[in-house]
Amino acid sequence: MSDVSAFQPVPDPLTAPFWDGARDGRLILARCPRCLAWQHPPLEMCRACAVRLRPEAAPLWGVVYSGTVMRHPAVPLYATPYTVVIVEVGGAGGPRIVARVADAEGDVAPGTRVDIAMRPLPGGDFMVPVALVGTPETGAPRS
Ligand SMILES: [Zn+2]
């Protein structure tokens, strides 16, 4: 496997809450205090209200919007094949994050309910969100 240190995040003031939260097992996304819209990746201001966004803990579950099976090692952090999904956090229409599926192989159908947990990013000290298809870890109610 090649040098994975080049694939480590470089937090800045906008993204630091996400990385700090991940280290604590939380999913911290930017949210507008006025209209309550989530914004990920984070921006400084709400696109609708032009007020400063605040970091807020998001639900640790979601539904799969889409996904793909990675068969080529585009990023040399994980052995191929592995599955990557776009998750709508908190349910359909929620903010979207990208996550590797940590407990299953192959395609995951859109609409599949997943739990979100944090796992170490190989090669450094960061934690990243992963999707868990079959093993609820959070105790969140299944919908
Ligand atoms: Zn807003």
From TrEMBL:
Pfam families recorded for this chain? OB_ChsH2_C, zf-ChsH2
- Recorded source organism is Acrocarpospora pleiomorpha
- Ranges for the ChsH2 C-terminal OB-fold domain? 61-118
Source organism lineage? Bacteria, Bacillati, Actinomycetota, Actinomycetes, Streptosporangiales
Name the UniProt record assigns to this protein: DNA-binding protein
Q: Which residues form the ChsH2 rubredoxin-like zinc ribbon domain?
A: 19-50
- Reading the lineage from the top rank, the first entry is Bacteria
